[in-house]
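Figure S4 source data
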Amino acid sequence: MIPDPLLDMIDPSDVSRMIFMLLYTGLFVTILWLLAYPKELKVGMKLYVVISYMRMITVYMIPLEPPSGLIYLSDPILAASVYKGHIITKDLFFSGHTATIVSCFMMNHHPILKWLVGFFAVSISYLLLVQHIHYTVDIIGAWMFSFLIYKFLTAEEK
C-alpha cells in the first residue's frame, strides 16, 4: 500500500454503474465516430493494444496492494464473460479504465464529442477514486501513459 492523502479525503462509495455507463457510452460513441475515419480507427486500435501491453508490464513490475476501503468494481458486461466470478484487485498501476476513456478522448476530433468524452474521462477518474479502486498515482499514470503513447503513435503523421 502507498500513502494517498487525496484518497484519504474521499469516503468510499459504490459508483460502479456510473463508471461503466460513462465508460461504455464514451467507448461506443468514439468507435461509431471513428468508423467514418479508417486511418484514425487503426490508430485507435493500435493505441488500445499498446496501452494494454504497457499496462501488463507496469502491473507486473509495480505490484501494489489495493487501497483501504476498496469497493469491488462490478462490470455488468465483463463480469459473466471474462471474469467469471474472479475478483481482481491488484491490477492497479496504471488504471485501465482511465486509460481507455482518455484514449477515446484523444481519438475524438469532433469538438462536441471531444468535450463530452473529456468530461467522461475526468468523471471516471474521480469516480474510480470515490470507489477506492485506484490510488491517485494510478489515475495520473493512466493519463500520462495514454497521452505519451498516443503522441508516439501519431508522431509519424506530422
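Figure S5 source data
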Amino acid sequence: MSEYRKSQIPSKEIFGNVNKYESYREAWSRIKLAQENHFFLEAITIQESIISDRLISFLSRPESPNPLPDHTRGRYLSFNQIIQKWRSEVSDTSVSCIALIDAVDRWRRIRNEAIHAIVKSDTGESTQSIDLFLQKAKEAADEGERLAREVCKWCKKEKIGKNSSLSTS
C-alpha cells in the first residue's frame, strides 16, 4: 500500500470492477479532503474527471446510436465535446435531463474560469483578489460535487433502465 493513499481500504468484499470501485472511492475521499482543506482546484479537477468518466461510459455503450471511438494513447474528447455529444444523444429526452446537461455545461465554463483565474488576467489588468478567487473556486467546487453526484445517479439510472428493458424483451 502506498504511503500517499488518503482513504481507507474497504471493509466489504467488492464484486465487479474492483479497480474502478477503488478509484471512485479514492476520488470521492480526495474531493472531501480537498474541500475541507480549501484545495478547491483539486476538488474541481477530480469532479470533472468523474463527470467525464461517467459520460464517456454512457456514450461508449454498445447500444449508443453513435458510440464514441476507441481512445488510444490517452487521447480523449475535451470536456466540452463530451457534453455536446451527450446533448446530441439525449436531445429528445426529459426536461430534467436537459436541465442537467445545461447545468454541467454552465459548470464547465465556471470551472474554466476558476482554474485559470489565480494568475491569469487581461494584458494591463491586475488579477482578481485571492479572496475573490478562493470564493469563486469554492463555489465551483461545491457545484461540481453536486453535479458529479447527479451525473453518477443519472448514468446509473440509465444503465439500470436499459438493463431492465433488455431483460423484459
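The chain has a mean pLDDT of 84. Residues 87 and 102 are 9 Å apart (CA to CA).
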